[in-house]
Amino acid sequence: MLVMPDEWFEINGFIKIGNNGVVTIMSPNPEIGQNVKTSMPMIVAEELDTDWKNVVVEQAPLNTDIFTRQLAGGSQSIRQSWPGLRMAGGAARQMLRTAAAEAWQVPVEEVTTEAGMLRHAASGQSAGYGEMASAAAAVPVPEEVELKDAADFKIIGTSRKNVDGHKIVTGQPLYGLDYQREGMLIAMIVHAPAFGMQIKTLDDAAVRAMPGIQDVFTFKTYADDYEPAWCDISAFTEMVAVVGNSTWEVMQAKRALRVEWEPQPDLIEAVSTGGQQIPVGLENTAAHRAHMEALGAPLARVTRRDGDPEAAFRDAAQVIERSYSAPFLAHNCMEPMNFFAHVTADKAELVGPIQTPEFMERSVSARLGLPLEQIDIQMTRMGGGFGRRLYGHFLVEAAVISQQVNAPVKLIYSREDDMTFGTYRPAYYATYRAALDAAGNLIGFHVRAGGIPESPLFSNRFPAGAVDNYLAEDWTIDSNISVGAFRAPRSNFIAGAEQAFLDEVAEAMGKDPIALRLEMLERARTNPVGERNDYDAARYAGVLELVRDQSEWGEDQPGVHRGVSAYFCHNSYVAQVLDMVLENNRPVIQNVHCAIDCGIVVNPDAAINLAEGGIVDGIGHAMYSALTFQDGVPQQNNYDTYRLIRHSEAPKSIAVHFVDNGIDPTGLGEPPYPPIIGALANAIYRATGQRIYEQPFAPQLEVFMREATG
Amino acid sequence: MALFTLNVNGNRVEVDADPSTPMLWVLRDHLQLVGTKYGCGVAQCGACTVHLNGTAVRSCMITVSSVGNQPITTIEGLSEDGSHPVQKAWLEHDVPQCGYCQAGQIMSAVALLDQNPSPSDEEIDTWMNGNICRCGTYTRIHAAIKTAAANR
């Protein structure tokens, strides 16, 4: 254990150095399990040139004066903070060198650093950072900072353990749900049971008398005249709050509450979508599916056209057409939505799990009528994010409830509240067509993709740029079911569909699926079609070649059924090979090879962990998960009915291989997730002889296995 | 409300709670032992796993009135300082991502190894299927259990 110093000296907003050389580094961004609380301070420590074992990491509060983009989303924390974190460390190092040069009366250029020590070789003088920290804190912030060459990195590129690891395995308080405050009350919400319903009457007479209950009331999350920001998505904005002394008492009261609900009048009317009248109101999964199949073609808008795709399909010797679908998904962070709030006349104190503190500070400021300076948001470690906690209505709800009861309050969602609240991954549907000429060449490619209520299409991603005649179209259908970003938004569906379709096209062309992709990427690299292609074909091909070599692709092993897939999103490239075997007629994922090009890898073992998680997550949702609706009511509200992947269903091993190219780091939290669904679908085909088009896969896979065994 | 005397992590503690209160909320709200996590409340996710008489149970399903003087061990009571072989194996493999489910995973793994010191892969699979990890750290959990088994 580190000995804490007697005195701290603040060098800049990121760094405090103690008189004994211990360094505190603030981790600016929300930690959702992507491990930025370790990797971001590692970047600062690298340029500070300190010894990692003398570093203490603290989670920074929201502070827009010091930090920028305190947000967990889009796999951007490392990519966008890379220059700023390096500058923060490098500037502090320079200030320490300046302080030493003045103390020793030597030229600053001759003062060197190493692992928290300052040295002047010519005079033989040396000092620890702690000895110079007081003087360094008074040095003006340098205007220009010299950064290290990547070749000199000693911390970046080496595996460092999770800084919260010990606290996690010993059960110390870390999460919003663990937060305690003297005099704190517990609050829970009751929202409408169906999308499209609202409160009609509330009968709280019996509940008010229940033990430990302090208050019951209806409230609105946002003011009526408030224009919600993107992060304010919430399907249920008028709810009942139950406030009491303890969680169990409030849960009991919540069950006893009598609320009458009624359909929202404005949602009974038909809603216009691209000229089509789509009835909404209380929605059903069966109708969703029928709408997506029937309305995609009439609603489609062309988003990209290269060459003459209509002619290519008209003249084709063979046309392959396949449609793919995926259901709504709930994020299901293991830690349900929650937030602590203590709102007084002139101050709002908020503590909890939030991916967008800066945005939600504005929302809560507007709701409470308090200026931003009087709102303090502290971020706790999050029990998962996956995009769900980008949308912080629960933070505002906690503040409103605290203001109403005039006490510190911790708002807790039950699992059922959490799973039925919306902000889901949308339902998607895509139809792909490929045109082959008589010689089996790919002469046309057409994708028409849409969803409820969002399209998953990226028109300018591969295979755009690799086919002469290319057509992309998208469409959307309105819904009153709220949706939000879910790990690798849109890519989490379209990658699997596209990569499964390409597998079928390769088979029809008589080509190896990796060889076909590499041919197409070579075309896109040397002679691209169109100008808006948003990927680097050489890096794309690079991960395919790496996974081909590492997996020894082409050297068939008896009984091993392999599927391959590759995708680009969040600025990074991923290719995967999934090996499926049949054990006692049960499909088992024996191994996954995963090649990633995300530039410089800051913390390799943690990066491997994150990639493993993305792979398991992608397989799990594609295989098992679905949220369905009957009359607007989610048909799954806990893990007994909503399936998540479990221990025995995960791949038995995962091998992650990084491309070593020295490029500044790009995204990692999301890119490993989307392509694995294609690799899985393709392996299922090799194992069973049947193509799979609809997620979740597991129920159909069971049918395939039964058919195969008679 | 009623008074209950419990044996938690080797300590005798008194709790004034409704008899129907699940041990999960007694631990978290009454005793401030928040290492035991709420995930589902219906014994489906395993985040609230503790040991009752040395057996892994879902504390969301055990009412305070049913416990009597049977000893309860939570993640906080597994070791003074994180030195239990399973905790050490978890750190060696740097298992957690978000970390929320890991206390429950560890408590399940400890109970497994207590009754089966060298479980097979299949036995680990079957035993650990009751603990959901939404981040997908299952391969590391599996490896850490094997390491802990080897190191005990």
A few lines on this structure:
Chain A is of the alpha+beta class. Chain A contains 17 helices and 29 strands.
Description:
- The complex is a heterodimer of chains A (710) and B (152).
- Helix content of chain A is 31%, strand content 25%.
- Chain A has three domains: 8-170, Aldehyde oxidase/xanthine dehydrogenase, molybdopterin binding domain (Aldehyde Oxidoreductase, domain 4, 2-Layer Sandwich); 177-265 and 337-412, Aldehyde oxidase/xanthine dehydrogenase, molybdopterin binding domain (Aldehyde Oxidoreductase, domain 4, 2-Layer Sandwich); 427-709, Aldehyde oxidase/xanthine dehydrogenase, molybdopterin binding domain (Aldehyde Oxidoreductase, domain 4, 2-Layer Sandwich).
- By secondary structure, chain A is α+β, with helices and mostly antiparallel strands.
- In chain A, the strands form eight sheets. Chain A has a seven-stranded mixed β-sheet, with helices on both faces. A five-stranded mixed β-sheet of chain A has the order 15-23-22-21-16, sandwiched between helices. A four-stranded mixed β-sheet of chain A has the order 1-2-3-4.
- Chain A contains 17 helices and 29 strands.
- Chain B has two domains: 2-77, Roll (Ubiquitin-like (UB roll)), CATH 3.10.20; 85-151, [2Fe-2S]-binding domain (DNA polymerase, domain 1, Orthogonal Bundle).
- Chain B has helices at 23-30, 85-92, 102-115, 121-128, 138-151; strands at residues 2-8, 11-17, 49-52, 55-58, 71-73.
- The mean pLDDT of chain B is 97.
